[in-house]
Amino acid sequence: LTIQVNAPATLSANGGGAGIYVEKGNATITGSSKLTIISKPSGDYSATAISLQKANLTISDANISTTGAIFCDGDLKIINSQIETNDRLLGSGSSLTIENSSVSSSTIINWKSLTLTDCYIKTPQGGYYDTSAKELKDASSYTANIVEICPMGDANDNDIVDVADIVEMVNAKNGNPSNKFVLKNADLDGDGKITFRTQPSHENSAI
Predict the structure, then answer these.
(1) I need a surface site. Which of 61, 116, 120, 195 has the fewest CB within 10 A?
(2) Among 66, 76, 80, 73, which residue's Cα sits nearest to residue 31?
């Protein structure tokens, strides 16, 4: 099953039903137009906007906003996409892969593994995925209740890659340590810009 979003669209479901429900097999959601999915809870039934039962889901080059959780009983891959949900990114013991994408959710939980490629955990700062507990935690090892995953580059959303982005990426690469790489160490000229210098040549220099 492939869902191609060629124009802005909204799907709504009541009674705890899912806006998109797939049982068994593989599914793909793609298309740069925004897809909004609204699922309303009912009684004991929580809201699940996207539900995959015994199925794998690939979200590629997509822009999705949900009210209600995103649940996948199989593997979930998010590639070159923007995903925003007010609820959980919920697995069932399978693998979650996020590549060069922006993802925001209340938490990420119950995945066997979380693999990030060309992106990093922005919030919570120092956050990490605990594979034994199967949940994303903050630096103090508490369950994260606000999660932001961002692509590498343009960390401050000003549409350019600047020194602040380099600082953000270096700290993310180092696991957001308590002793952080700071702006003044990256911006030697103090002008907020990235300056490339050539190293002086030592060839033929006097010893």
Answers:
(1) 195
(2) 80
The string of pLDDT tens digits covering residues 178-201 is 555 555 555 556 666 655 555 554
3-class SS string, the chain: CEEECCCCEEEEECCCCCCEEEEEEEEEEEEEEEEEEEECCECCECCEEEEEEEEEEEEEEEEEEEECEEEECCCEEEECCEEEECCEEECCCCEEEEECCEEEECEEECCCEEEEECEEEEECCCCEEECCCCEEECCCCCECCCEEEEECCCCCCCCCCCHHHHHHHHHHHCCCCCCCCCHHHHCCCCCCCCCCCCCCCCCCCCC
Would you state the pLDDT for residue 85? 96
Query: What is the pLDDT at residue 159?
Result: 59
Q: What is the distance between the alpha carbons of residues 194 and 36, in angstroms, rounded to a whole number? A: 38
158: exposed, middle or buried (C-beta count within 10 Å: 0-12, 13-18, 19+)?
exposed
Nearest to 11 by CA among 42, 46, 47: 47
Tokens of 23: 């049982």
